[in-house]
Amino acid sequence: MGSHGEKVSVLLLLCLSAVTIVVVKAEDPYIFFDWNVTYGTISPLGVPQQAILINGEFPGPNINSTTNNNVVVNVFNGLDEPFLLSWNGIQHRKNSWQDGMLGTNCPIPPGQNFTYHFQVKDQIGSYFYFPSTGMQKAAGGFGGLRVNSRLLIPVPFADPEDDYTVMIGDWYSKSHKVLAKYLDSGRALGKPDGVLMNGKTGKEKDQKPLFTMKPGKTYRYRICNIGIKNSLNFRIQDHLMKVVEIEGSHTVQNVYDSLDIHLGQCYSVLVTANKQPKGYYMVASTRFTKYQLYATGLISYEGSKAPPSPKLPAAPTGWAWSLNQFRSFRWNLTASAARPNPQGSYHYGMINITRTFKIVNSVGTANGKLRYGINGASHTDTETPLKLAEYFNVVEKVFKYNGIQDTPPKKTPAQLKLQPVVVNQTFRNFVEIVFENHEKSVQSWHLDGYSFFAVAIEPGRWSPDRRKNYNLLDALSKHTIQVYPKSWAAVLLTMDNAGMWNLRANTLERFYLGQQMYFSILSPARSLRDEYNIPDYWKLCGIVNDLPKPPPYTI
Ligand SMILES: *[C@@H]1O[C@H](CO)[C@@H](O)[C@H](O)[C@H]1NC(C)=O
Ligand SMILES: *[C@@H]1O[C@H](CO)[C@@H](O)[C@H](O)[C@H]1NC(C)=O
Ligand SMILES: *[C@@H]1O[C@H](CO)[C@@H](O)[C@H](O)[C@H]1NC(C)=O
Ligand SMILES: *[C@@H]1O[C@H](CO)[C@@H](O)[C@H](O)[C@H]1NC(C)=O
Ligand SMILES: *[C@@H]1O[C@H](CO)[C@@H](O)[C@H](O)[C@H]1NC(C)=O
Ligand SMILES: *[C@@H]1O[C@H](CO)[C@@H](O)[C@H](O)[C@H]1NC(C)=O
Description:
Blueprint lengths: L8 E5 L7 E5 L4 E13 L6 E6 L8 E4 L3 E8 L7 E4 L24 E7 L5 E7 L11 E6 L14 E9 L4 H9 L9 E4 L13 E3 L4 E8 L6 E5 L4 E6 L2 E2 L4 E2 L2 E3 L4 E7 L6 E8 L7 E8 L18 H9 L26 E12 L2 E6 L2 E3 L6 H6 L3 H4 L18 E3 L2 E5 L3 E8 L5 E5 L4 E8 L17 E2 L1 E4 L3 E8 L4 E7 L2 H5 L3 E7 L33
Parallel strand pairs: 3-6, 5-10, 11-14, 13-22, 23-28, 25-26, 27-35
Antiparallel strand pairs: 1-2, 3-4, 6-8, 7-9, 9-10, 11-12, 14-20, 15-19, 15-21, 16-17, 16-18, 16-20, 21-22, 23-24, 28-33, 29-32, 29-34, 30-31, 30-33, 34-35
The site of one 2-acetamido-2-deoxy-beta-D-glucopyranose has 6 residues, from loops.
């Protein structure tokens, strides 16, 4: 079991002088990346369009890390607009400075660079990074981020032959700037133009295999939905998938013939090449939509050039199927792993809830234009990042705490209040968050800085008596949860990661138009045990630009 502050301490007894004892504290390994972010032209749907490339690649390069690695990414912004990357699902314990959201970081100006330094502390699993500014995610700039278990930590399945990352997502053929202009003018985005799998539709002439499998061997596929609007169903012709990990939790290993992957979610599955040697299609298709958009990706068996069957397996229909699948995902309580909050919320079912925060998403308007909201307010970003306003003690010049209540207004207003939405939480409180969706579209919510126990999703409206249906034993600890139409979802977590953390709709249009907010968790101690200091290499922005740095946190 992973534990906080685990470091290898080596005692070296120097033989020459028996009285000298030297303690060497080995630091966790570093991995370094230099990333050039530029525009490039791609034509995944047959029409040339502007995309965001990282070192010339779309999707961007994979980060392959191991638990507790220090990851250093020097990002050069070669775009003509500000840029930030966020590390979806990485908890950044004590370190919201590296979260890369507009509420925590000054965006990297065009032509400049910024270095992210973060540790993938006590985490394992499959994640991704993405550009968090404006509509940039609709142009690329995203890629896979995996955290392998350390060598000494047993993994609850045999080492796969290889490890493949599959980025699926719906896609628009217009540039992110055009999409942003539509939204700024008050118009909705409408339906996407296609679905991509690792940057391709699979409809290209001479489709090349994305992956190769050796007959008889087992492979790990990590599938993330980095799309813009839709839940996708993922399946592989004739092959079953054994789910082993979801967003950082090792699961009870059930076998599925298809998986619903909602926006922002990542699943790891094992696939064995135990069928007739030939080609097989992976399929990702839109769910809960009147239209049917899909992408395919080819897997070939080594040594065989035989083509795949053109007959694609069908997706399930309706969302009841999807809800049942959610309920079948369980945490493997006996698997050893780097656990989130090992001592704290592991027995999460026995901890008393100290605060319930219930939020209702809605569509409305502000200043006559389309906006999306939470409990009647629609978030707006500030020029001075919220975290900096707090750190420099100038909050009152930038935002007000608790602009929304812990419970939604009885009737959701059509007019949404435009404001930065920040709710403060008491450090280490055990909190229940209920997401209620009164709308007809599926919602997907993500919380930065944490993983939470996804204890229930049910149709209808939430009330306290629904708690009796919570899974208080082996719910998955994850960072993203879907909420079906006219349904609710509940999650439990300990607010033990001090910082400023974004809670957001993964639907890009909703995120861009205000369906997001921040939790501020301040440790009263102002101690380095609870939160790191602002990195000294940081460039500041907004009203704190010329302010003297406050006294640093101390031990
Ligand atoms: C990034 O761009 C700079 C200048 O254009 C170039 O010197 C450098 O090699 C590039 N780095 C990578 C990793 O592509
Ligand atoms: C990723 O890292 C692991 C552990 O260091 C290593 O075994 C594996 O070969 C790496 N995979 C890739 C694709 O680099
Ligand atoms: C920008 O890149 C240079 C060259 O690699 C590096 O020395 C410097 O620290 C970087 N600046 C920031 C703010 O990360
Ligand atoms: C859970 O993990 C243990 C330990 O690695 C493993 O032996 C067991 O098969 C797993 N259980 C299930 C139901 O997947
Ligand atoms: C939880 O609340 C109940 C009822 O108020 C109380 O009896 C119990 O001691 C509390 N448990 C913990 C662990 O605080
Ligand atoms: C949250 O903010 C309110 C209003 O500013 C303040 O009264 C309260 O003490 C704060 N609570 C915490 C836990 O920081």
